[in-house]
Amino acid sequence: RFLSSFNSRDGELMDKITKALKSSIETKQKILVDQNLLTIIAQITEEITAALRNNHKILFCGNGGSAADAQHLAAELSGRFYLDREPLFAEALHVNTSYLTAIANDYSFEETYPRLVKAFGQKSDVLIGLPTSGNSKNVVKALETANQLAMITIGFTGETGGQMKNLCKHLINVPSTDTPRIQEAHLTIGHIICELVEDEIFGKKA
What we know:
Blueprint (H helix, E strand, L loop, with lengths): L1 H7 L1 H23 L2 H19 L4 E4 L3 H14 L11 E3 L4 H10 L5 H9 L5 E4 L7 H12 L3 E6 L12 E4 L5 H24 L4
Parallel strand pairs: 1-2, 1-3, 3-4, 4-5
């Protein structure tokens, strides 16, 4: 009975699955042929590599799924990507839930990230903000604070860049307005950067 029920809607489900996969591939294909975006990815790799070689920190921030991406990418650097090597200083700013709820309750949610940037950030550290819209207020304020501290500011957004467009030294504005497709591209680009940074600092993988 289950197979009979599934088969009756199999064509519709397969169409939706195919459409989603094609959409994801098309977004990445647009990045692949955009020499400007590829150049920015290379520049970000160089900035992060230089910062880590000079004992600076890499901080990430985002909300919701982008917070998950921030934590994921921080773990790739502080843990390992391909190589068995020393840890690198990378952290996602949302991982202390007691801090987040205290600041959101006592001040406002907008203050959650900028206060931590002010506490942790120093000149030439790197702050990476990952909101798909480019307009998340707590991330925007974190970037403003980072700029005041002469940190290196990097943004991962959708195609417009939002308010972050004028706040970031380097901006990867994925050519899409579809949040899931943007986040998928952010993670792919983030993985590429983590792999390249690891290669640059610790040597090429076998």
